[in-house]
Each structure stands twice: as structure tokens, then as C-alpha cells.
Amino acid sequence: MVLRAIVLSALMAAMPAKAITDVGDAVPLYSEAELIHLFESNQQLQRVKADECQLVQDIEVRAERVELPAYQFLYGDMLAWGVCVQRDVELGLYYMETAARQGLPSALEQLGRYYARGTLVQQDRERAIPYLREAAAMGHLAARIQLAELLLNDYGSPLDYEDAYRWLYQSVTADGRTHRKITQLRRNLEQRMPSNVIARAKRRESFW
């Protein structure tokens, strides 16, 4: 240990001062809350690239060994699109699926969106429904909107109308465009639902 310290000190002394300052501060590891925020705005890959790929090994360890769903989803996304790692779409989707099975709403929503649009996978809107429904039930706003859109395009089951309507009715957003979209989707669903089912969907279990 003493010899190692001497060698390191010698190397630092020999290094020009400018080179030392150019190294910069280490990039802190992302917290789970920070990752969720990045997922909601779909900025996770941009953030990894902006951090110059410094956290790839940490992300991989937390995905593979610690099995944290947020890191599994992030690592899967990186693999699927070849961001800071060699591209491997199949392995990337595996990690996304693993995160989804652990109940990560962002993973569920993205897989549902991919199947609905045919991104990386073969388009299968019926297969998208369970992913989006699960994410919607957990409060994911984009999933709630996409689920309603698929139902209104005659995918899924009419039995899902009530839940889809209830989730839209309970959704909160400060974005005016999103608010108008939710309102329109609710009106379109109302045209397919009996009045008593609409009333039941609006009913609150508690006012507290």
C-alpha cells in the first residue's frame, strides 16, 4: 500500500497541472427518483450520452447483479439502441421485459408503445394492450392515453372501457394540450358506454 501511494504521488507530481484540472469531477450515479424523472420525459439515453458514457459499468452491474428494475430498463434501452454499448436489440428487450415483470411503469409503457407502433418488434396492437393496461393502472399518464386510443380503434376488449375511462378521469396534468386530449378521449369513450357505467367510473371510493 505504501509503495502504491508513492507511485501514485509520483505520477500526480509528474502530471501537468492543466491535465489534472481537465479530468473534471466524477459523474454521480443516478438515483432511482432521477431515473424515473428521466424515463417520464424519455431523456434517459440523452443523459447517458451527455455524461460521456462514464457510468456504463455501474449501470451494467446494477442491472445484471443487483437487479434493480430502473437500471435494468436503462441498460436495456442502451443495448437496444446502441448507446455507449455495443448494440444488441434482443438482449436489450430482455432487460426491458425483466424490468416490466418487476412492475416498472416506464418499462411497461415503452414495451406497450413498441408493440403498438412496431418499433424493434413486429407490430401487434393486441399484445400492446396488457403492457399499457398495467402501466395505466399504476398511474402512467402516457400509457393511459395510449390505451384509450387503442380501445377506440377497436383493439382490446370493450370490458376495458370502464377502467380506461376511470383512469383518464382521475388523471391530472398541467399541460393544456394533454388535458384537451384526455377530455376528447373521455368523450369518445362515453359514446360507447352506458350512462350507469360512466357514473360508476366517476365514482370515488373516498373523498379523503
SSE series: HHHHHHHHHHHHH
Largest sheet: none
Number of strands: 0
Gyration radius from CA atoms, angstroms: 23 Å
Number of helical regions: 13
- How far apart are the first and last residues' alpha carbons, in Å? 61 Å
* Contiguous uncertain segments of 5+ residues: 1-15, 17-24
Q: Helical percent range? A: 55-70%
Mean pLDDT: 90
What is the approximate shape?
Answer: elongated
Class from helix and strand fractions: mainly alpha
Beta-strand level of the residues, as a percent range? Answer: under 5%
In short:
The protein is mainly alpha-helical and 208 residues long. 68% of the residues lie in helices and 0% in strands.
Could you characterize the architecture of this molecule?
The chain is an all-alpha fold. 68% of the residues lie in helices and 0% in strands. It has helices spanning 2-14, 17-22, 32-40, 44-50, 56-64, 69-81, 89-101, 105-117, 125-137, 141-152, 161-170, 176-190, 195-202. Helix 5 (56-64) packs across helix 6 and helix 8 runs antiparallel to helix 9 (125-137). The longest helix has 15 residues, at 176-190. It is elongated, with a radius of gyration of 23 Å. The model is unreliable at 1-15 and 17-24 (pLDDT under 50).
